[in-house]
Design brief:
Elements: E1 4-5, H1 8-30, E2 35-41, H2 45-60, E3 64-70, H3 76-88, E4 94-97, H4 107-113, H5 125-133, H6 142-153, E5 162-166, H7 173-182, E6 186-190, H8 197-202, E7 206-209, E8 227-230, E9 234-235, E10 241-242, H9 247-251, E11 256-257, H10 264-284
Parallel strand pairs: 1-11, 2-3, 2-4, 5-6, 5-7, 7-8, 8-11
Antiparallel strand pairs: 9-10
Length: 285
C-alpha cells in the first residue's frame, strides 16, 4: 500500500495563518508588530534567495521584517557591531544571521553574540542548553520544530517508538534527536561513521534524514508503515532538487512520507515565523 504523502506546503500554510493571527493580537496589545531582523553577509546567490524568501514570508504574516546586507569584505567586528545594535533595539524581537558566513568571519563569535532571547535560529549555546533540559523558555531551531509538526499532523505516535535521525549537525540532527527524545521516542543518531545504516533504518518506526546525500536511504530499507521525513535538499546533475530518501521505492513501504521539494522546506520558514512571534511574546511576558 502506498504511503500517505505529508503535504508540507498545506501544513505550513496553516502554521502561517496561526502566526498571522498571533501577530495581529500582539500588535493590538503592544502597539506594534513583532520585529524580525535578517542579516546577510556577502553576495552568495543561495543566501540572498533564502533571505528574500524569509523576508517575504515574514511580511505576509504581518511581521516587521528588515534585511541588513553587509558586503563580503565585512569582517567579524563589523558583523558583531550590527548584531549588538540589533540586540539593543527594543523593536527588534528576533535576529537571524544567514549561514554560511563568508570565509574569514568567526561564525561562532557571531552566533554567540546574538541575544538568546532574540535567537530565532535557536543556535545560541543557551538555547541549545535549554533544549537539552526541555525548558519551555527557549527558542528551537526551525527545521526540527517544523519536522515535529509534520510528524504530529501525520498522526505518527512517537511514544516508545524507535526513531532514527541521520545527521548530527547543530542546526538539524542534534536538536532533532532531542525533540524526539522529549516526545518519548527511543532515538538513534546515525552519521558517516555508523557501521550499518541499513540495519538501523530497517528497525526504525520513524526516520528523519538530514544528511544532504541524494538517495542515501534506500526504499527497501524502510520498515513497513514507518513515518519518513526527508530533510535533505540537494540539487542533482539533472538540475532538480532531490532528497536523501529514494522516494518512489520508500513510498511503497512507508505509512507516511514527505516529498522533496514540498515537504520540510516550507515548514522551516513557517517555524521561523513562529519563533519570531514566540520571541516577541517571551520578551514581553
Amino acid at each position: 500500500m502506498a504511503a500517505r504523502i505529508i503535504d508540507g506546503k498545506a501544513i505550513a500554510a496553516t502554521v502561517r495563518g496561526e502566526v498571522a493571527e498571533g501577530v495581529r493580537a500582539f500588535a493590538a496589545a503592544h502597539g506594534r508588530p513583532p520585529g524580525l531582523a535578517l542579516v546577510r553577509v556577502g553576495d552568495d546567490e543561495a543566501s540572498a534567495w533564502y533571505v528574500r524568501s524569509k523576508h517575504k514570508a515574514a511580511t505576509e504574516v504581518g511581521l516587521r521584517a528588515e534585511e541588513h546586507a553587509l558586503p563580503a569584505g565585512a569582517g567579524t567586528e563589523v558583523v558583531l557591531a550590527l548584531v549588538e545594535r540589533l540586540n539593543a533595539d527594543d523593536a527588534t524581537d528576533g535576529i537571524l544571521v544567514q549561514l554560511p558566513l563568508p570565509s574569514g568571519i568567526d561564525e561562532r563569535r557571531i552566533l554567540e553574540a546574538i541575544d538568546p532571547a532574540k535567537d530565532v535560529d535557536g543556535l545560541h549555546p543557551i538555547n541549545l542548553g535549554k533544549l537539552v533540559e526541555n525548558r519551555p523558555d527557549r527558542l528551537t531551531a526551525p527545521t526540527p520544530m517544523g519536522v515535529m509538526r509534520l510528524i504530529r499532523e501525520a498522526g505518527c505516535d512517537l511514544r516508545g517508538r524507535k526513531a532514527v535521525v541521520i545527521g548530527r549537525s547543530a542546526l538539524v540532527g542534534k536538536p532533532m534527536a532531542l525533540l524526539l527524545l522529549h516526545a518519548d521516542a527511543t532515538v538513534t543518531v546515525c552519521h558517516t561513521r555508523t557501521a550499518d545504516l541499513a540495519a538501523e533504518v530497517r528497525a526504525a518506526d520513524v526516520v528523519v534524514s538530514a544528511a544532504g546525500s541524494i538517495g542515501l536511504v534506500r526504499g527497501a530499507w524502510i520498515k513497513p508503515g514507518a513515518c519518513v521525513i526527508d530533510v535533505g535538499l540537494t540539487r542533482g546533475p539533472d538540475g532538480k532538487l532531490h532528497g536523501d530518501v529514494e522516494f518512489a521505492a520508500a513510498a511503497e513501504r512507508a505509512g507516511a512520507i514527505t516529498p522533496v521539494p514540498g515537504g520540510v522546506g516550507p515548514m522551516t520558514i513557517a517555524a521561523l515565523l513562529e519563533n519570531a512571534l514566540r520571541a516577541a511574546r517571551m520578551r514581553r511576558s
